[in-house]
Write a structure and sequence with these properties.
There is one protein chain. By secondary structure, this protein is α/β, with parallel strands linked by helices. It has helices at residues 33-40, 72-76, 78-86, 145-151, 159-172, 188-200, and strands spanning 2-4, 7-10, 16-19, 22-24, 45-47, 64-68, 102-106, 111-112, 115-119, 128-132, 135-139, 176-179. A 7-stranded mixed beta sheet has the order 1-2-3-4-5-6-7. A 5-stranded mixed beta sheet has the order 8-9-10-11-12. The chain starts with a strand and ends with a helix.
Amino acid sequence: MELRKGVVLLKGSPNTLVVGRYVIDPGNPAERSAEILKAAGERPTVLLTHHHADHLSATPEGAEVYAPWGEEILVSNTKARLFFTHGFYVPDAAYVGRDLKVAGLVRPGDKIENVEAVDLRGHTFGHMGYLVEGVLYAGDAVFGEMVLKRYGMPYLNDVDLFTASLDRIESLEPEVLVMGHGPVAGSRKRIKELVEANKSA
């Protein structure tokens, strides 16, 4: 689904955004990598919002991976990722992923061609969003109502940072909001409703 010229959504849970050869959150399951290669071409560059395995398991072999600053060890090391996520090593967790070689780090304000990295911490301590052509890929910085209804309070490392990131999402005034888990929000009114729903959770 093309959201803007050259900005393609691959629906899933999580959703994946493809901007030319850049792939934001390849997602899960690992078999999805074939769909990603078809959309982005061979040897894409992967930009991760955060280290959780459900957002990185479909990273294609040979992709150049960029992790949010401070989360690189959790992207590159499965045991560290599982220990940090669960509080102990869980080799048979629902989402495990694999060790990924990190080519570089992304910091808030970085520009990767026409993609701008945005600080959306809270869900994790280094969580990043990506803004391109009026489309904000927010990853798990905001959740759809069905996720909130099912789980109540979502997984958060820091509630205050999460709330500040919700305010930042609104202040950026994106025309389209793509979240990791939930449908695309295509108006500022709808984005405001989602922000308020997340604050109330």
